[in-house]
């Protein structure tokens, strides 16, 4: 990403657009034969020379043209930027760079999704406590968490792919987009060779809803990564202890407390996801420009696009490392599941009482009374209290009541879910 978004690489992409345009003009007989090849052989651009000219011109495209012209014959230099306006070159090159950046992100996203899939398959039979509002709810499969994230990352993948497709366009249509100084054939020639489609219609610029879609899709991806990181952070808390991000040999967690192993990578992911989301508003505000264009979007994008794509790429790299190196404590999950002495099976008991004839409201009162009593006094468990209740005894045998505290039913449909979403055949 650093190389991709460097000034030198940007100017070299500009130069490629210029040379391809010269080739297109030559194919139409509007430029002397051999000009384009001589430009390809000899034309060079040096970022330092562009900077030197820009210090005088205060116009980066004119500075670029002057820097390139220094490297070729005067006669050939006449055909650099022939019939073009600045943004023909800038927006076409930017689209090329941005789609390349998105290809790197898509590659990283596919790799992360594969790592998450492996975790989902490894942990589908691992029982854990499900939590709602942060409170123990009912038993579930730990693998279902990973399956859920795998699906969401798939949607992220489709969003980024769609944004990339929308961004894979270019324009060489002149100062107001009406091809006054060059025919559409020039645009088609250059676009075909750069792997970009000519925009159906443009002004002097490509319309910025395309760029905004890229940023919003990356922001949503960032929030998915934040979501995963947040759960890992919660699950690494001492009181929970179910997950633990990688902690390498020689790593230290605290300057004052040698025992500490902190989820610093996941905290970093959560923090940087906030920054990535923060780019959404500037991207949306770049959409309304004055008439056929102004330049208010340009300064924003010089920060926005390299930063957002680099951040997204970095977050994917870090999250993939976390997922692959994560310690998953199935033993601790079991301890937490059993922590409440069976309270998490209250829903099964409620349904069993209703099924055997008790009204739902009364059944709820009975189960809740024993659950709350067991919470306040751990000397007798929830299950024991139910067994001693005459109303419960009258409807449910001790054997049937014991069966209601079995974890197996809570995992019985996991494979069905996995097949439905395509994780297993």
Topology at a glance:
Elements: H1 7-27, H2 35-42, H3 47-57, H4 60-69, H5 74-77, H6 86-122, E1 127-132, E2 135-141, H7 142-167, E3 169-170, H8 184-194, E4 197-198, H9 209-236, E5 243-244, H10 264-277, H11 280-285, H12 296-325, E6 327-328, H13 330-338, H14 346-355, H15 360-376, H16 382-387, H17 390-395, H18 398-403, H19 408-411, H20 414-421
Parallel strand pairs: 3-4
Antiparallel strand pairs: 1-2, 5-6
Helix pairs in contact: 1-2, 1-6, 1-8, 3-4, 6-7, 6-12, 7-9, 9-10, 9-12, 10-12, 14-15
Give the uncertain stretches in residue-range form: none
Rg measurement, Å: 31 Å
Output the structural class: mainly alpha
Give the helix tally.
20
Characterise the protein shown here.
By secondary structure, the protein is mainly alpha-helical. The protein has 3 domains: 7-82, Fumarase C, Chain B, domain 1 (Orthogonal Bundle), CATH 1.10.275.10; 87-336, Fumarase/aspartase (Central domain) (Fumarase C, Chain A, domain 2), CATH 1.20.200.10; 343-404, Ribonucleotide Reductase Protein R1, domain 1 (Orthogonal Bundle), CATH 1.10.40. The chain is 64% helix and 5% strand. The chain has 20 helices and 6 strands. The protein has helices at residues 7-27, 35-42, 47-57, 60-69, 74-77, 86-122, 142-167, 184-194, 209-236, 264-277, 280-285, 296-325, 330-338, 346-355, 360-376, 382-387, 390-395, 398-403, 408-411, 414-421, and strands at 127-132, 135-141, 169-170, 197-198, 243-244, 327-328. The strands form 3 sheets. Strands 1-2 form a two-stranded antiparallel sheet. A two-stranded parallel sheet has the order 3-4. The protein has a two-stranded antiparallel sheet with strand order 5-6. Strand 1 (127-132) and strand 2 form a beta hairpin. Helix 9 packs parallel to helix 12 and helix 10 runs antiparallel to helix 12 (296-325). The chain is elongated, with a radius of gyration of 31 Å. It starts with 6 loop residues before the first helix and ends with a helix.
